[in-house]
Amino acid sequence: MPIGFQILDRALRVIRFLLPILGLLLVWELAVRTGLAQAGILPAPSTILARAVELLGLTGERAVLFGHILASLRRALVAFALAVAVGVPLGFLLGLSEEAQLWVSPILSLMLPLPAVAWTPILLVLFGPGDLTIVIVCFLGAVFPVLYSTMQGVRACGRQPVWVVRSMGGSGLDVLRRVLIPSSLPALITGFKLGMAHSWRTLVAAEMLAALTSGLGYMIFAARSYMDVSTMFVGVVCLAAIGMLIEHVLFGTLEHVTIHRWYARDAQTGGRQ
Amino acid sequence: MSNVEKILSDPVGETATLAPKPKITAEGAGIRFGSIVAVEDFTTVIREREFVSIIGPSGCGKSTLLYAIAGFLKTTSGVLKVDGKPIVKPGPDRGIVFQEFVLFPWRTVLRNITLGPEIAGLPRAEAEERARKWIRLTGLGGFENAYPATLSGGMKQRVAIARALTCEPDILLLDEPFGALDVQTKNYVMKDLQDLWIAASKTILMVTHSVQEATLMADRVLILGARPSRIVADVRIDLPHPRDPLDQRLGRYRQEVTEILSAEVDRAMKGERGQ
């Protein structure tokens, strides 16, 4: 396919994706304008957009949105990075050692369904409000999905691919580098996606409970004192949009250059089919 | 005197001085997993450049035996030797090809085949040079940059064979190499493998459950009994290579092997039914 068509195809796909969202916004706008919904509780999209522009800093003193977004992103990403740093090596260990797995998996199955936010009050007692508490809560939200997916990926590898490398005189490091890591990569990416999504979700609740001055969760919660519903909606929309961008752009690209190429899925389908 | 010494000092061995050196020696090798005896008292000598096929009822432990020779599993009794030295671990002197190909989907055909030389620490250019030879001989030319997911079963198995041969092993171990291929593809790959064997002069040990494959390709067919398995017959197929599948003499060998094998399968089935 010529490159021009590819771009056109891609653009059409993006439009097709945005169409239902635009439809929803239109219905919402009309519902408010016709008085079907109360503007004081459900502000119209146009009102929210106006507030967003204001908060984004195009008009003076209320330009705080970028600061909140950056604070939130920083916390969620630090927590995610820590979760990867802990979850991936531990996942490999548990995936490779039956013994370790026997000991740890009961604890894992207890921790996996536990909402990380439940730890927030305890951490508040320990560390007080602030970044440390928020990052730890997000970390606890992210680490278990990463760990679990890594473990599953490593265990799914099977013994024959390992044998192939061994029969070529490969060392333990060769097995890790040339078999275990690439073969568990699809599972790793799934774990990263889940981990980041958990980190992002946990963040909002943690910020509502433990943030002092910044973060989207803080912004939404603080707006409650002024009954400032538009600002709350700006926060909610930002959370949704940023979460979606991280999943589609960051992890979508990662999948595109790795597993989609290897397993010969159609490169044109844009990664989320 | 052990069985092996008996075999080696066999009076028919007037030709033994002329015969190639023993490559793989098994002296009462046994493998058990817990209380399950997979292989018991496996004793034989496989000589250099011999093509030997192991055949037996399913579950008789023939693949287990192959894995032990590859060094993936340990014997629990007796000894397995290569070039007179006991096998302790896998090594590049023994290449393996599995039924399910076991290619690395994240590597292209070329990179799958260069894996052995890469692990051996060869520079990339030299690794590719070595791979090219086997890519040509296995008919994979033009597919170097394809990913395995885009290949047919027969092509995948050629990649697996080329990958094993690029390590230049003395011994090629084949674990039901045609089991996952359809009949037409299988015939092609079998023909290719015979040509390769003639060209490469390797010792080949092939595990199969197909009498047709075993008799067509091997110099000797070892028939294993039902578990715990031991050799019940050692049939020499005295026909020149490459062989014609329609050869009358081959048909007689097929019949002989089938008869011995059927008796073993009957015995195994009776055993399973507890009679």
UniProtKB/TrEMBL annotation, chain A:
Subcellular location: Cell membrane
Keyword 4Fe-4S belongs to the record: no
Gene Ontology CC entries for this record: plasma membrane
Protein origin, superkingdom: Bacteria
Keyword Transmembrane among record annotations: yes
A Pfam family it matches: BPD_transp_1
Keyword entries, A-Z: Cell membrane, Membrane, Transmembrane, Transmembrane helix, Transport
GO biological process assignments: transmembrane transport
Domain named ABC transmembrane type-1: residues: 69-255
InterPro entries: MetI-like (IPR000515), MetI-like_sf (IPR035906)
Entry protein name: NitT/TauT family transport system permease protein
Automatic annotation (TrEMBL), chain B:
Pfam families: ABC_tran (PF00005)
The keyword ATP-binding belongs to this UniProt entry's keyword annotation: yes
GO MF annotation list: ATP binding; ATP hydrolysis activity
SUPFAM superfamilies: P-loop containing nucleoside triphosphate hydrolases
Stretches assigned to the ABC transporter domain: 24-251
InterPro entries named in the record: AAA+_ATPase, ABC_transporter-like_ATP-bd, ABC_transporter-like_CS, ABC_transporter_ATP-bind, P-loop_NTPase
Xref: SMART domains: AAA (SM00382)
Record flagged with keyword Transmembrane: no
Keywords: ATP-binding, Nucleotide-binding, Transport
Domain of life of the source: Bacteria
Assigned protein family: Belongs to the ABC transporter superfamily.
PANTHER family attached to this UniProt entry: ALIPHATIC SULFONATES IMPORT ATP-BINDING PROTEIN SSUB (PTHR42788:SF13), TAURINE IMPORT ATP-BINDING PROTEIN-RELATED (PTHR42788)
Protein name (database record): NitT/TauT family transport system ATP-binding protein
Organism this protein belongs to: Paracoccus versutus
